[in-house]
Design brief:
Helix content is 52%, strand content 19%. It is an alpha+beta fold.
């Protein structure tokens, strides 16, 4: 007798307990199998995704040499135009505070120009006449810049100087590899 029960009812109870244990074991086994299968599926999906990521990385690597760099024409143009505009704005501000061309004026933008242009401008101020940067004897009220053409690694930037009712256009060349002012050509 089991727990004070008759042998018939004890057998039924024992059988019920055994069947319950078998059902619980089967349920646990099925849950384990299902979870294991789920983990394997997720693992396979992760492997597939990792393969796709690796393929995309290879494609990106192969494109790196073909993508525009910081010296692409549009970026260089924007940078060159900004360099010219900033240089001319600096010279205008200096001229408004210190009228008359001087070495100090040229030095305010020395870091923005090639050595050749710096030397040419320094030599130019020794002879009387127009300011070799502004190409004028008067100080313009404002300047604006626009693209000219690109040739041999240089970008021509047109500087339009406004003198109230009239304008004048100075041609400035920027060396794109050094991003420095390379020449200034005054209008004739």
């Amino acid at each position: 007798m089991l727990w004070g029960m008759s042998s018939k009812s004890g057998t039924k109870t024992a059988l019920l307990v055994i069947v319950s244990l078998i059902v619980i074991a089967a349920a646990a086994g099925a849950t384990y199998y299902w979870q294991h299968k789920k983990v394997n599926n997720l693992s396979n999906q992760a492997t597939t995704l990792q393969g796709q990521v690796n393929n995309l990385n290879k494609q990106v690597s192969s494109l790196k040499g073909k993508l525009p760099t910081s010296s692409s024409p549009s970026q260089s143009t924007n940078s060159a135009n900004g360099l010219v505009k900033d240089s001319y704005d600096t010279v205008l501000t200096y001229e408004q505070q210190h009228p008359g061309v001087s070495q100090a004026e040229i030095n305010t933008i020395k870091s923005n120009m090639t050595t050749g242009l710096y030397n040419w401008l320094t030599a130019s101020i020794k002879s009387p006449g127009a300011d070799p940067i502004l190409c004028a004897q008067a100080v313009p009220a404002s300047v604006s810049v626009s693209d000219g053409s690109t040739s041999g690694g240089n970008l021509t930037v047109l500087v339009t100087e406004s003198f109230g009712t009239s304008t004048s256009t100075v041609t400035t060349t920027v060396n794109l590899s050094s991003n420095k002012l390379a020449s200034i050509t005054c209008p004739q």
